[in-house]
Design goal:
Keywords: Cell membrane, Membrane, Transmembrane, Transmembrane helix, Transport
CATH topology: Growth Hormone, Chain: A
Number of domains: 1
Organism: Microlunatus soli
Membrane topology: Multi-pass membrane protein
Shape: globular
CATH superfamily: MFS general substrate transporter like domains
Largest sheet: none
Oligomer: single chain
Helix content: over 70%
Family: Belongs to the major facilitator superfamily. Bcr/CmlA family.
Structural class: mainly alpha
Order of helices and strands: HHHHHHHHHHHHHHHH
CATH class: Mainly Alpha
Radius of gyration: 20 Å
Main location: membrane
Number of helices: 16
Length: about 400
């Protein structure tokens, strides 16, 4: 899909970002990467209040998240290859503008149905931010530098969903759930202004592919022919399903079952981020010693074990501590599995980074989106449905890993 000289381009472009410019690039891409998780999770502490005000059930309330995740996932399938054709700046800037506008529509939504629609469109516009940030990394860098920067972005992706509810709890102390969406609109507008001023185009005209749907389909066909890539995408998506299931189910489990206030819920949610943050920071050392495949396999096994432990503690009525400890271990495993699965998946597809990142991101958000209403539909006033969903997701991820290992990862 690119010329024979394409691999040299990322190195030349990346060499421009050294010292302070590199730090600025990392901060900007990190901020862009955080927008998606903030959009997903900042309103979580307000879900019970939102449900009551709009007179909605648990399942329909969680569809506000499912619609967003579906929009984020499906939108990437289009925007990813589109950015390979028209460049990165235009999709990013228009996506941020659309995200800001739809955040305001969410704030004004008079019904749960309108909110679901607005969140879905918000996801479609936000998809540009998610896929372009990762594609820019592959535009600028290769090898170790690409892996290092990608790991930082994955850290932001993993940590933001854990910290965002704490921000939401703080905002709820000052405003209502509508105010949270106004803040999200302001964040998107600020990011758009910074991108317009500070982010250059990273995909030169000579490296772009024709804006032809057939060429896009050919790019996806090449990805589907790569068994290793598909397995890593599936593993990453299933681990995200476990994470999103927790993110969606935790407000009801922690507030309704264990009786925590929104503020205390935000604190507990943030405490669980410690394991994820620590393991993400340790991941480079683990990979250097054991290799990404072995580290990923160990992380998935840990996630399965933690999910089974959560089921047992839920059935035995072990209380809040019996919920927090297994979840802490599960999130720590996600902190290791996410960057390694993404790095392995993208390692052989730098020539069509936008398309490869789009399919990876789409799978994560779509499968994660399917997990969220499942938790709500099966809600029985305990953490058992959440634990069962996590066992299913992590168990499938482990089965895929073991199957691929027999064929040599």
């Amino acid at each position: 899909m690119t010329s024979a000289t394409a691999p040299s381009a990322p190195v030349a472009l990346g060499d421009r970002f050294v010292g302070r410019k590199y730090v600025q690039l990392v901060l900007l891409l990190g901020a862009l990467t955080a927008i998606g998780p903030l959009t997903i999770d900042t309103y979580l502490p307000a879900l019970p209040a939102l449900r009551a005000e709009l007179q909605a059930g648990d399942a329909s309330t969680q569809l506000t998240m499912t619609g967003l995740l579906a929009g984020l996932g499906l939108g990437q399938l289009i925007i990813g290859p589109l950015s390979d054709s028209v460049g990165r700046r235009k999709p990013l800037i228009f996506g941020l503008l659309g995200h800001a506008l739809m955040s305001l529509v969410c704030a004004l939504a008079p019904s749960i149905e309108m909110l679901i629609i607005a969140r879905t469109v918000q996801g479609l516009s936000g998809a540009a931010v998610a896929v372009v940030a990762m594609a820019i990394v592959r535009d600028l860098f290769t090898g170790l530098k690409a892996a290092q920067l990608l790991s930082r972005l994955v850290l932001v992706t993993g940590v933001s969903p854990i910290l965002a509810p704490s921000l939401g709890s703080a905002l709820l102390a000052l405003t209502d759930w509508q105010g949270i969406f106004v803040v999200l609109a302001l964040i998107a507008l600020a990011a758009m202004i910074i991108a317009v001023v500070a982010l250059p185009e990273t995909l030169p005209t000579g490296r772009r592919v024709p804006a032809e749907p057939l060429r896009w389909l050919q790019g996806y066909a090449g990805l589907f022919a790569d068994r290793r890539y598909l397995t890593m995408v599936a593993v990453a998506a299933l681990m995200f399903a476990a994470l999103f299931g927790y993110v969606a189910g935790s407000p009801f489990v922690l507030q309704d079952v264990f009786g925590l206030s929104p503020a205390t819920y935000g604190v507990v949610f943030a405490v669980n981020a410690v394991g994820l943050i620590v393991m993400t920071q340790l991941n480079p050392l683990l990979v250097k010693r054991f290799g990404p495949e072995r580290v990923l396999r160990g992380a998935v096994i840990t996630a399965v074990t933690a999910s089974v432990a959560l089921l047992l503690t839920s059935l035995s009525g072990a209380g809040l501590i019996g919920f927090v400890v297994p979840i802490f271990a599960l999130l720590a495993a996600c902190g290791v599995s996410a960057p390694n699965a993404a790095a392995i998946a993208l390692s052989r597809h730098g020539e069509n980074a936008g398309t490869a990142a789009a399919l990876l991101g789409s799978a994560q958000f779509v499968i994660g989106g399917l997990a969220t209403p499942l938790v709500g539909l099966l809600n029985n006033g305990t953490a058992v449905p959440l634990a069962g969903m996590m066992i299913l997701a992590t168990g499938l991820a482990l089965a895929l890993m073991l199957r691929l290992s027999r064929r040599s990862l």
